[in-house]
Design goal:
Elements (H helix, E strand, L loop, with lengths): L9 H8 L2 H8 L9 H7 L16 E15 L2 E17 L3 H5 L7 H5 L5 E9 L11 H15 L11 H9 L9 E3 L13 E3 L33 H26 L4 H5 L2 E6 L11 H18 L6 E6 L3 H9 L7 E4 L2 H8 L17 E7 L5 E7 L11 H4 L9 H11 L1
Parallel strand pairs: 1-6, 6-7
Antiparallel strand pairs: 1-2, 2-3, 4-5, 7-10, 8-9, 9-10
The structure holds zinc ion.
Length: about 425
Amino acid sequence: MPYQNEFADKTSHIDIVQNPDVEKFLEKCHKIEDFNGEDISSAGQQFSPPINNCFHKPDNIISIDGSFYEASRKKEYPSQKIGFIKVGVILLQGKSLSAIQGGSKFVDPYAVAKIKENNEAYSFVLPSTNIVYDDCEDVQESFRRALEEQFDNLRDKADDPNTSLKTTLFKMASYLDGCDANRVVLSKCPCCKATDNIYIYKDDEAPKCPHCGKRLYLTDILRVWEQVADVTSNQSALTRTMNIVERLLAIHYIRSIVESLKESYANTLENLCFFIDGPLAVFGEPAKFHACFMKYLHELNQTMRSLNKSDILMIGIQKSGAVNDYLNLIKDYIRNGEVYCLSDEIRNKYVTFSKNAASDTFGKETYFGQDFLYKNKKGNVFVFNVPYPFEEKSKVANFKIEKSNIANYKNIKIYTDLLDDQF
Ligand SMILES: [Zn+2]
């Protein structure tokens, strides 16, 4: 995805920043501490070679990368728009199924994840502006129902609803406050907006609001519907949906592996890394799910650790943004093959403009992973994000410090090795 504020060309950028009104406005804007030459050249001193570990590099990499489009239904009706999200799941590297099945104890994760011929794409078609689906009453209900149906239809086995993305969502929702393995709770009814006792039970195929009697959908718990309007663009809802689907798909594959290979899933998971486009974070209405991902990964990592295996491998690659700008500024002063775990202190000083950023830890309500800066052996630089090795932020005595202590990430060498190989 392009960086949202990227200018199409340099001429328009210069025209804008040299505009007297813009210049006057920028003079009054809060400025980040300006870099001086000494700051830039000393920034590289914080980097160090990743510590060797006893884990081996995984043979398999699954890359998950989404994109979305909003298009008019017909040329004659430009105001009627349909949303289309496509999430590509690509095998970047892996042993073939036959090679792995040749008497090995490892089971091919792609067979579990049903990735055929090295890649698979999942499509989500959602109503956007002024499109009403089936017998729904409005665009918002249409969006809710279409999203639910498509979460349910994405199944590993067509005849088994327990293998659906919808069931993975229920499992993640069960980690939210007030929810459990049999019942999850919505913060409000999308129809009557009542806020008490809005439950969805695991086996209820057509849950209804106890107040207004209208149909509820499990995907309502993502709260993306709050962004959906009848006659304005729904790009924001599409972005949020794509963001959560990309991350949820990785979790879905992990759940598929764990539940289908009850005895040997740790062997398969240690040999697999997910590459995700963007940070390991959930933004906007579904943000609270970031904590569910932390809890689920931690639960599985307990088993992985007890078997002397690496924590589950997942890496979010950030191609643009403020941290990338910072890294590009200092890259000439970093030695090849060295990595840095970004602290809030450095972020607040050189990366983040927000004045109150220093009062709390970065990404408190959204991130389930930590930013690392790396210059690989070929000299290419990366901002990457890997899961926090903790169950809950509030359970770590000084999370702000511990999250940026590289010693807490036992498998960091695997990630840097993969970045050396792949790019
Ligand atoms: Zn209701």
